[in-house]
Amino acid sequence: MNSVHFQPPPRLLVIDDDPVVRESLLGVLEAWSGVGLITTACRTDMVDRVRDEDFELVLLDAGSSVAAALERLAELKAVRPDVPVIMISSHGDEQWAVHAIQAGAVDFIREARIGALLVHAIKRALENIRLAREVEMLKMDLVGMVSHDIRAPTSNIIGFSDLLLDDNHSFSGRPADRAKVERIRSNGLFILHLIDDLMDMARIDCGVLRLVLGRHDVAELVRESIDRCTFFAKGK
Length: 236
What we know:
Blueprint: E1 12-15, H1 19-30, E2 38-41, H2 46-52, E3 57-61, H3 66-79, E4 85-89, H4 94-102, E5 107-110, H5 114-164, H6 175-206, H7 218-234
Parallel strand pairs: 1-2, 1-3, 3-4, 4-5
Helix pairs in contact: 1-5, 5-6
């Protein structure tokens, strides 16, 4: 578990209204050099803190009520479903731990075992985050390579189509042949749009998509779709 590396160091949020439990948590965390900034919050403002600030991990004290603890966990996951939560409690049994994991927690630790298990659980959660980010980067690299390899020959198809459609070319005076080349060019552009969509999907998965809003002619999109399908539909 020593392979966990974050730049900058990971930020942890400790949510607890019990000063005794909080002191125990902070004592364990402050003795561990692998964590960055530790922020504390009470349960009443936990949602605002998670919504307004970036944390790699949340430590949530469940308290004594199973139902209330699961509700708080659900509130956190509703605001930031991507942030892992480790639930800590002085009560409960294995069944409670199962409920917590099913509700979205990545781990459940009894208060009595904070000293023995907390750092290990945090390292494991952070390692999973690091691996997930590596997978996202590899996915982006793969999509980028595939997109480049497809984009290059497609651009050539469009370029040669433009050359054939030039007014000085013999195709310009033969409407039937010109229509076929225009169809080739149109489908080439369609492939380029598909590549852009593929890249956008990868960016959405990685959470880095930037939306550019604008007006579009829906009727024109429909006409283009019909034109692309008409040739093949006629053959059937």
